[in-house]
Amino acid sequence: MKPSGYRYAAYPAIDLPDRQWPGRVITKSPIWCSTDLRDGNQALSEPMSVQEKLEFFTKLVETGFKEIEVAYPSANDTEFKTVRTMIEGEVIPDDVTIQVLTPARDDLIERTFLAVEGAKNVLVHLYMNTSPFFRDVVYRTDKKTMIRRLEHAAALMRSCAGKKEGIRFMFAPESFTDTEPEFALEVCTAMLDAFGADRGHKLILNLPATVERSMPNQFADRIEYMIRHLPDRERYLLGVHPHNDRGTGVAAAELALLAGADRVEGTLFGNGERTGNVDIITVAMNLFTHGIDPGLDFSHMNDLRHVFERTTRMHVYDREPYSGELVFTAFSGTHQDAIKKGFDNLANKKDDIWDMPYLPVNPRDVGREYEPIIRINSQSGKGGAAFLLREYAGYDMPRRMQPEFGKLVKELADRTGAELPPERLLSLFLSEYCDINAPYRLIRHSILEQGAHDGHSSVVFEGLIETGGDIRSLRGEGNGPIDAFFSAMKQVHLNDFEFASYHEHAIGSGSDARACAYIELLHHGESFFGVGIDGNVSVASIKGVLSAINRAFRSDMNLKVI
Questions:
Q1: Which of 5, 136, 239, 431 gives the lowest tally of CB atoms within 10 Å of its CB?
Q2: 3-state secondary structure 81-110
Q3: In whole angstroms, what is the distance from residue 508 CA to residue 41 CA?
Q4: Through-space distance between the first and last CA atoms of the chain, rounded to whole angstroms
Q5: Measuring CA to CA, which residue among 90, 83, 78 is closest to residue 49?
Q6: Which residues are registered as beta bridge partners of 209?
Q7: Percentage helix, strand, coil for the chain under 3-state DSSP, each rounded to 5
Q8: In order of start, what are the domains of the chain with their CATH numbers?
Q9: pLDDT tier, 455 (very low <50, low <70, confident <90, very high otherwise)
Q10: Is the entire prediction scored with pTM above 0.85?
């Protein structure tokens, strides 16, 4: 890239040679706070209506969030009305805390407390941008004046709260990651005193990467620095609010938890200004896949995604971790084959630990099904087509047959240049293996079991078969239905077929169950499979033999099913 004429400075590192967070392991989930209705909402080109916010709020509650930032009530009438509607409509469960945001201005603080009047549990979030740029250019103030202003705001908030139960406080030095670490520490220490924080009334110190500029490890260093130097760890809960400008918001949140953070603010699917807030779904599901209960329920992921897309008019990226349309989908043949074998292996596992190639989480844990995992296009292989046909329609092809069908699938995908949905695979399977009535078509038949002779019973096949417009009567005897049918077919000079393999399984259950027989015949040294389906297993086998014979003759004539 060519420089624009302006230089970019490296992010300043903290001297923390004995940092402890790299050697730690996350063992429990943090406190989660959804900021979808405030931080996420203000980033929308068309903000949510009050009714849409209520719908989204209900879904967040169902998911398990106990702290939800619902509005910036002093910003406009819609935000104020949102809070009042929630409180007066009694839609806030008793165990859920609503969070509201206010800057350090007297009139806005007072309007914020007016908005939350009557709420059972409220977290009032005071913020001020403490970075050098805001101090020098935007506010035109100095450090001491900024701290005095914040102390005054804290005193006003305590006065507005009075002795009301259920009101807690939070302070955020906005642009924490752009603020000198020493000054961020000074401001947060002053706020602990200004809010009268103690072990029974903890202040939440929310440290945001308002714009993500640092590498995730540098963010973790700053969190550990703050925890080391803040007075009395029991007086506060330390939260983080990562953004995703560098694309590493999730990593920053995880490393911050290693550094000692207690709380994570973020949004579903990473919505938010610019590149968005940290995606809480990804952070929580990452913990889940490491055996840690995140305390949030994403077993209804599809429904959650639909509510999000409807209320925000945003689209969840198809590759969004855990929630995107295609994240559990494999098109590659090698991936499909491994996944199919992985599912086959589940039944043989001696433990209940999820161990599956290419699938870090069981799709059913997020409300997804197995059927869409494997999707077929020209890149797909035999294993994927076989898996999908089995899951979609119940046809469990023998392993020796799968390469043959996989080749047919690949040829069709190449011709169409498109993905093949399950119903198209089924159509190809039936037309290629089952719906074949030429050059030989069985008109009618009977199978009779003869009495025992020399200790062995025999079976007689009798029937009519059509070929080339002629109808022939057939009769054959053998030690079973397939052998008897082979014997009968010799009457039409079909002597050059050799039986190779037989597989059979049931499709459906109860009175609707049918037998599906897979017959492999050798013809001039080449293998041909046929499939027969019938309520009677013997008839299904005979249909399978005839299918294989017809496919062999069709191959000789170089005919293809499209």
A1: 5
A2: HHHHHHHHCCCCCCCCEEEEEEECCHHHHH
A3: 49
A4: 50
A5: 78
A6: 242
A7: 45, 20, 35
A8: 21-312 (3.20.20.70), 333-433 (no CATH), 441-556 (3.30.160.270)
A9: low
A10: no
- pLDDT given for residue 350 in this prediction: 84
Q: Which amino acid is at 477?
A: E
The two tokens of residue 531 are: 């499939």
Rounded to the nearest integer, the mean pLDDT of the chain is: 90
- Residue 434 confidence (pLDDT) above 50: yes
Residue 61 and residue 50: Cα distance in Å, rounded? 16
According to the model, what pLDDT value does residue 77 have?
Answer: 92
| Dihedral over alpha carbons 421, 422, 427, 430 (to 10 degrees) | 150
pLDDT band at 561 (very low <50, low <70, confident <90, very high): very low
**What integer pLDDT is reported at residue 453 of this predicted model?**
60
pLDDT of 3 > 80? The answer is no
Strand order in the sheet with 514-523: 497-507, 514-523, 526-534
Q: Could you give the CA distance from residue 326 to residue 100 in angstroms, rounded to a whole number?
A: 36
- Tokens standing for residue 359: 């699938």
Cα 491 to Cα 254: distance, rounded to the nearest angstrom: 75
CA distance 81 to 517: 67
Total residues belonging to the chain: 562
| Dist CA 257 CA 254 (whole Å) | 5
For 246-402, where are the E strands, in sequence order? 263-266
Find residue 374's DSSP bridge partners. Answer: 330
* Residue 301 pLDDT greater than 90, yes or no: yes
Higher pLDDT, residue 110 or 423: 110
Find, among 225, 300, 216, 316, the residue nearest to 267 by Cα: 316
- Flag whether pLDDT at 149 surpasses 90: yes
Distance CA 369, CA 366 (A): 9
Q: How many CB atoms lie within 10 A of CB 18?
A: 6
Helix, strand or coil, per DSSP, at residue 63 = helix
